[in-house]
UniProtKB/TrEMBL annotation:
Gene3D superfamilies: Porin. This is OprD family porin. InterPro entries: OM_porin_bac, Porin_dom_sf. Residues 1-24 form the signal peptide. GO terms for cellular component: membrane. It comes from Acidithiobacillus ferridurans. Belongs to the outer membrane porin (Opr) (TC 1.B.25) family. Keywords: Signal, Transport.
Length: 200
């Protein structure tokens, strides 16, 4: 009887070790199939007006991005996250009028979780919900500065036939390239609407 109990305990221990090993291997495979990339940008921008009525303006920023997209799970789901950061490194002029505000506003630094979304994809559709980059003729990435514009909403792309793509989207908020938060406004709203500087 004691020998049987010992055998059962040994078998249970081996099964537990095997399951832990299989779980660790599964996790390692999952992370190995996930994607991580980054980018560093150094940007100097100046405006020389050549008139005594308007002062010249300039701005410098050292910026970076880290992007993580998980491997597919549950037959087509993925999670994506992108963090953006930009810093003037103490180069801003003391006179706010001399700061070119299209780069990163008047703030000495901008840190934002620009993307955080859940995506589902199969051979017919791609659906994405959350904070994300959008690239359409009407809404696009606007990446001409250090931090791109990102949007908060739901997007859907369908591929019913080869060479045909149908898109639908519902956007709730957006994050301008000079801010760290998402706002329910647009470039036609007055400046500082709900705290959004709308410099970009």
């Amino acid at each position: 009887m004691q020998k049987n109990i010992l055998h059962l305990m040994t078998a249970a221990s081996l099964m537990g070790a095997f399951n832990a090993s299989a779980h660790a291997e599964t996790l390692s495979q999952f992370f190995a199939k996930s994607h991580i990339d980054g980018q560093i940008r150094s940007y100097y921008f100046s405006r020389l007006y050549g008139t005594p009525n308007t002062v010249n303006a300039y701005a410098y920023s050292l910026a970076g991005r880290i992007n993580v997209v998980t491997a597919p799970f549950l037959s087509g789901f993925r999670i994506g996250v992108s963090f953006y950061t930009a810093n003037a490194l103490g180069t801003q002029p003391s006179n706010p009028a001399r700061i070119d505000k299209t780069l990163m506003g008047t703030s000495p630094s901008v840190n934002a979780l620009g993307q955080a979304y859940l995506e589902y994809q199969d051979k017919w559709i791609t659906a994405k919900a959350g904070n994300q980059l959008v690239d359409t003729p009407w809404l696009n990435r606007v990446g001409g500065r250090v931090i791109p514009v990102t949007y908060q909403g739901v997007t859907l792309e369908a591929h019913p036939f080869r060479g045909v793509q149908l898109s639908a989207l519902r956007i709730f908020r957006w994050k301008d390239r000079t801010t760290d938060q998402f706002y329910r406004d647009n470039l036609y709203y007055p400046g500082h609407y709900e705290g959004d500087s709308l410099y970009g």
